[in-house]
Structures are given as structure tokens and as C-alpha cells.
């Protein structure tokens, strides 16, 4: 006579486990492979597409479902979806050594690609290849986090490369033409823009104020917000070029 599986046990296969320790207990959820990072990055928003089963476990590999009392005590909540979302957001994704190594390699490569896209050699005014950036990142012993945004890690990597002077590197600059009506407000707006501008190349105070300048890419949105707020749609920003690189080389 076959032995019945206990009612609090559910067997799952080919699963990615997210684990969160809370209130002295271990809680796990069973997810489809690759879907956890898609949910964390905002690519996937449907929990049903992420979870293999909408339940919380104390041990996924053994199929042990978490006790209701433990869940209520730890999360102070009876809403299973909110509990699962907290585990999904704050928990640690459990992966094999082979998977983790693959994820680290991919993350490292993505960071190097972003740095290569956003930066130039200030001496030659030319972009670096991804391979050259990877080598430089190796020299500063960059530590990558597979659960963190590659963009934020790339920005941190640029800072480290600049501080440790492994290679001459700087952010590629955007050349802009900013135009707005020449009124009594124009000088006030320019005063707000000046701290955000790396270099003013040309300026014209005729009927229409025209400014041609270089900025670091990170300031573009702030400049746009200032014009929108102060000029009320009468100003214009035109991207003329990305300094010393072709527009196809760098994307923002």
C-alpha cells in the first residue's frame, strides 16, 4: 500500500528558491527560473508568472509548507500575496555554484559594456573597447552583486577607475544647444543652469537666447526639468553630439 504524502508537503522540481529569515524562522517561495530577476527589475509584474505555487514554505526542497502561525507571527500579516511579495523583494535567491558563477560573469560583462558606452579616454577622446574595460575592472578587483542594478554598479565602477587611475577615463560629454526667449527671466534661468554645465562653447543674447555647451550626461534630465519649470514650454534642448564619439557609440 503506497504511503500518502503528508498534507503539509508539496514536491516541486526545476525551481528557483527565494529565502528570507525573519522572526527566527526560515521562509521560502518556489519560483520559475529567471523570473525572480525579471520581477525585481520590473520586467515581470504578474506574481502568477513568477511563482510555481502561491504558497510559502519552511523548506522548498523537502516540500514543507510554512505553518500559518509562524507566518502571522513573523510578518504580522494574513495577506499571502503581501507576504510573498516581501519575501520576493527582500529574500536571497538560492542558486547553485555553477548558476552563480554564470550570473556573476554576465553581470560583470554588462557592467563593462555600460562603462564602455558611457566613457571615453580623455587623452585620445575615443571610447574604450569592452575588453579593455573588463581588463581595467579586473585590475581594481571589482566586486559585482548579481542582485543589484548593473547601471548603478557601472557608475560606481567609473568612480573607482577614476580614483585608482588604472586607466585615464571620464564620462563622455553631451554637446547641447539650449534656446529660450530673451526676457528678464533668462539670466535667472542661466544662473540655475551654470552649475550643471561643464563648459560653455558659445552664447548668443539676441532676440532669442542661445547657449551651446557641454554637460555630463547625468545632468541632462535636471537641465530639462529646470527649463520646463521656468520657461513653461518655451525653451528647447537639442542634442548636437556626444563629445568626440559618434552618437551610435553611446546610448543614454
Automatic annotation (TrEMBL):
Taxonomy, superkingdom: Eukaryota
Name of the protein in its database record: 8354_t:CDS:1
Species the sequence originates in: Scutellospora calospora
Amino acid at each position: 500500500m503506497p504511503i500518502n504524502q503528508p498534507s503539509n508537503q508539496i514536491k516541486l522540481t526545476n525551481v528557483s528558491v527565494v529565502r528570507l529569515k525573519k522572526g527566527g524562522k526560515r521562509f521560502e517561495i518556489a519560483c520559475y527560473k529567471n523570473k525572480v530577476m525579471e520581477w525585481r527589475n520590473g520586467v515581470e509584474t504578474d506574481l502568477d508568472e513568477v511563482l510555481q505555487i502561491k504558497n510559502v514554505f519552511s523548506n522548498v526542497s523537502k516540500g514543507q509548507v510554512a505553518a500559518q502561525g509562524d507566518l502571522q507571527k513573523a510578518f504580522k500579516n494574513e495577506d499571502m500575496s503581501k507576504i510573498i511579495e516581501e519575501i520576493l523583494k527582500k529574500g536571497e535567491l538560492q542558486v547553485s555554484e555553477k548558476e552563480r558563477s554564470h550570473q556573476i560573469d554576465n553581470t560583470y560583462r554588462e557592467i563593462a559594456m555600460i562603462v564602455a558606452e558611457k566613457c571615453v579616454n580623455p587623452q585620445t577622446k575615443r571610447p574604450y573597447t569592452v575588453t579593455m574595460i573588463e581588463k581595467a575592472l579586473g585590475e581594481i578587483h571589482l566586486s559585482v552583486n548579481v542582485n543589484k542594478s548593473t547601471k548603478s554598479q557601472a557608475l560606481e565602477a567609473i568612480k573607482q577607475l577614476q580614483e585608482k587611475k588604472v586607466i585615464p577615463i571620464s564620462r563622455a560629454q553631451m554637446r547641447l544647444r539650449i534656446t529660450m526667449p530673451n526676457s528678464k527671466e533668462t539670466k535667472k534661468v542661466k544662473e540655475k543652469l551654470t552649475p550643471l554645465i561643464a563648459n560653455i562653447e558659445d552664447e548668443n543674447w539676441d532676440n532669442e537666447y542661445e547657449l551651446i555647451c557641454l554637460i555630463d550626461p547625468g545632468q541632462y534630465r535636471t537641465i530639462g526639468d529646470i527649463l520646463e519649470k521656468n520657461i513653461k514650454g518655451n525653451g528647447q534642448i537639442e542634442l548636437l553630439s556626444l563629445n568626440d564619439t559618434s552618437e551610435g557609440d553611446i546610448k543614454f
